[in-house]
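hiii so um. not sure if this is the right channel but i have a protein structure encoded as tokens and i wanna go backwards to a sequence. like what aa goes where. can anyone help
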């Protein structure tokens, strides 16, 4: 979990690796919400027009440790702080405010709407029946093909 890609892979450019399989691919600044949106639209248009599959490498940064048990000794705190300056949500919010597209009240309303939607989803999940144990591995592996 704490192995840097450069220590595990000879080629760290994942978009380049995907391209080597003949798949249309390109890297995207995953810290830029609008760049991700544009790339996703481009990929969807390509797929829908018959161009085959696309691979988008969304280059992002994980701000937190992998889990609460991860001591996170593999990266410096100043590195994390530097990346936090590129927080995609903060950058988009600041941009929308600067454009006049988002006011403080708008953001509060949006956050309340999201919280309500999350609460409803959690309630629906908690009210749903439990998955039968015999189905836990369904769709994990293909069913064996039997000879006629």
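sure thing!! here u go:
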């Amino acid at each position: 979990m704490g192995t840097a890609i450069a220590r595990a892979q000879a080629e760290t450019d994942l978009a380049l690796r995907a391209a080597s399989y003949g798949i249309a691919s390109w890297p995207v600044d995953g810290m830029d919400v609008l760049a991700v949106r544009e790339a996703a639209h481009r990929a969807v248009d390509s797929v829908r027009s018959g161009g085959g599959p696309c691979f988008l490498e969304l280059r992002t940064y994980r701000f937190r440790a992998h889990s609460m048990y991860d001591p996170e000794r593999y990266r410096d705190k100043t590195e994390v702080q530097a990346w936090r300056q590129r927080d995609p949500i903060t950058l988009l919010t600041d941009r929308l405010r600067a454009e006049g597209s988002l006011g403080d009240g708008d953001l509060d309303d949006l956050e309340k709407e999201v919280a309500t939607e999350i609460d409803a989803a959690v309630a629906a999940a908690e009210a749903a029946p439990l998955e039968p144990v015999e189905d836990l591995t369904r769709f994990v592996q293909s069913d064996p093909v039997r000879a006629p």
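oh and The radius of gyration is 21 Å.
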